[in-house]
Amino acid sequence: MGSVLGRGNSPKQGWIAETKLEAKMVDAMKRRASEGSAMKSFNSIILKFPKIDESLRNCKAIFEQFDEDSNGAIDPEELKHCFRKLEISFSEEEISELFEACDINEDMGMKFNEFIVLLCLVYLLKEDPTAVHAKSRMGMPSLEATFETLVAAFVFLDKNKDGYVSKGEMVQAINETTSGERSSGRIAMKRFEEMDWDKNGMVNFKEFLFAFTRWVGIDEMEDEDGEEKV
Predict the structure, then answer these.
(1) Count of CB atoms within 10 A of residue 202's CB?
(2) Over the stretch 85-128, which tens digit does the pLDDT of each residue have?
C-alpha cells in the first residue's frame, strides 16, 4: 500500500503524523470535531449507507470524464486536469501528496474508489481557513453533502477529538447502539480491523474512507466493470 500512516505498534496519546498530508487531515478533522456531529449512533450512520452509495456511484460519470484515455484509472496528469476543471486550487506538491496517498496500489493509476477517497479528502482539506485554496468550490453540491455526512460519521466515532479513531472508541460507538448485546464487541472489532489497514491501532480519515467504500459496495462496482479489486 502507499505510505504507512502513523508510527508505532500501539495507540498512544500525542500520535505523530508521518506525512504532511496526514498532519493536515488530522488538523482539519480536529477543527471539524470542535463543531460536533449530527450523528447520534452507529445505526444512524448505517441507515445512510443507501443514500451514500447512490451518491458515490453517481460520481462514476465524473471519474470517466477525467479518465481521458479511458483506461479505468486516473494518472497524475489527468488528476491535475481534473483539479483545474473543478477549480480546486491546490499546489503541485499538494496534488502529488494526495495522489500518492490515495494510489494504494502504487501503480500510478487511481481507480474509482481511490478517486472518491481523494475527492473527499479535498473536501475536508479545502475547509482549512489558513489554506490558499480555502475558498475553492468543488461545484458538486450533492456529492459535497455526501462527503459532509462521511466527515460527520468520523467525528462521531472520534470521541476524544484527536483526529483518529482508536479501537476503544469504535467499541464505545458500537456499544452505544447495541447496549446489552454480546455480539457488539465482536462487531466493533471486525469493523475496526476493516478500517485499520496498517494495523497500528489507530484509524485516520483516509483509512476510514477506504473502508467505507467497501462497506457500501464501491469495490464490487469496480469488479463488475472488470477492474482490479483493491
Answers:
(1) 23
(2) 888 888 899 999 999 999 988 888 999 999 999 999 999 988 65
Q: Residue 167, Cβ neighbours under 10 Å: how many?
A: 18
Between CA 122 and CA 136 the distance in angstroms is 10
Contact 162, 175 (CB under 8 A): no
Query: What is the residue type of 131?
Result: A
* H or E stretch covering 166: strand 165-166
The residues, any chain, with a CB within 8 Å of residue 49's CB and separated by 6 or more, are 215, 216
Question: Which DSSP state fits 74?
Answer: B
With cell 478533522, the residue in question is 29
Task: Write b or e for each residue in 134-163: b if 16 or more Cβ atoms lie within 10 A of its Cβ, otherwise e.
Answer: eebebebeebbebbbbbbbbbbbbbbeebb
